[in-house]
Design a protein that fits this description.
This protein has three domains: 124 residues, no CATH class; 96 residues; 59 residues. It is built from eleven helices and six strands. A two-stranded antiparallel ribbon has the order 1-2.
């Protein structure tokens, strides 16, 4: 649909986002996976001229001149602004600039927490397709790692792929340039599962020196940028959520869920000890959602297993 930037009046085209129930199962941090991967991305509109970003409803009327003083990040594209599609604008810029606007507007910490959490989801579901050969390889490994035909969690499928590839690499069943391609495949699966820290470490290593082709190296840079921004947004989401709790802004029906999510954000940010504390605290509170008790127990088991995995990784690196 045609719209105008509420800051400077620039005309551009954006896509209206329809809400609905077209979702696959959600991730452990409650990222619901839209069947249309652009849903979270298109929820925030960005002016392709000045890069002002906000939800669709905030494009309905012009903003006061004082908002023109905001420092907005820009994104360089080799396309005239009038021809830029919303999907082409980096989600890191979209949600960063939206946060800048809503902070200036005076939105509360609960609103900003939700915005930043959506930012993390947008980074995760942004697909870097890769070459046709890589897409074929990925499909092959999904079938090998996740043969189930029932309703699935995208997070679980990608974790299964990453684990299967890691096993093949550990057993030394690969040689030559296929090793780097499989390492890329593992990192891609980890990023899609939301394990951005582990994925970023692999992408960084591949970019330092590998036998990947030029197209996969280009894609590795894009993947790494998404990993970094997902971590940035998660850190902000945690801080805003903590502030919202301190200020009594968390709705009563989300009290236990918000404590669980603090744990999940800490786990994904690489702090399993802190995550464990929040999970245990959530386990002691009344559970308002049916699925939450099982999820808390599952994630507690996951962080309890983390130290052993970490020491194993250190041992392997030492012997390389």
């Amino acid at each position: 649909m045609d719209t105008r930037c509420p800051l400077f009046g620039h005309p551009f085209t954006a896509q209206a986002v329809a809400s609905g129930d077209d979702f696959a199962a959600f991730d452990s941090d409650l990222c619901r996976r839209p069947l249309d991967h652009s849903l979270y991305i298109l929820a925030v509109w960005t002016c392709p001229y000045c890069f002002f970003s906000a939800y669709q409803t905030d494009y309905l009327k012009p903003l006061p001149a004082e908002f023109r003083e905001m420092e907005l990040r820009r994104y360089t594209l080799d396309t005239a602004p009038a021809e830029i599609e919303q999907r082409e604008i980096f989600v890191g810029v979209k949600y960063h600039n939206a946060e800048t606007f809503y902070r200036k507007q005076g939105r509360d910490a609960w609103f900003l927490y939700d915005l930043m959490l959506r930012g993390t989801y947008s980074c995760r579901i942004t697909v870097v397709q890769g070459t046709a050969e890589f897409q074929s390889l990925r499909e092959q490994w999904i079938k090998q790692s996740w043969p189930h035909k029932t309703r699935f969690s995208v997070e679980e499928v990608n974790l299964a792929v990453a684990a299967r590839v890691a096993q093949e690499l550990d057993e030394g069943n690969l040689a030559g340039d296929s090793v780097d391609t499989m390492r890329y495949l593992r990192a891609d699966a980890l990023r899609r599962a939301g394990e951005h820290r582990e994925a970023a470490a692999i992408f960084e290593d591949l970019l330092k020196g590998s036998e990947l082709g030029s197209e996969l190296l280009r894609d590795a840079r894009s993947q790494l940028a998404l990993c970094i921004k997902e971590g940035d947004f998660q850190q902000k989401a945690f801080e805003y959520l903590q502030q919202a709790q301190e200020e009594g802004l968390v709705p009563a029906e989300n009290a236990t869920l918000s404590v669980y999510l603090q744990g999940e954000l800490m786990r994904r940010l690489g702090h399993p000890g802190e995550a464990r504390k929040f999970y245990r605290r959530a386990a002691e509170l009344p559970v308002q959602q049916e699925f939450l008790a099982a999820l808390i127990e599952k994630q507690l088991g996951r962080v309890d297993a983390a130290p052993a995995l970490k020491s194993k990784d250190k041992k392997k690196r030492k012997g390389r």
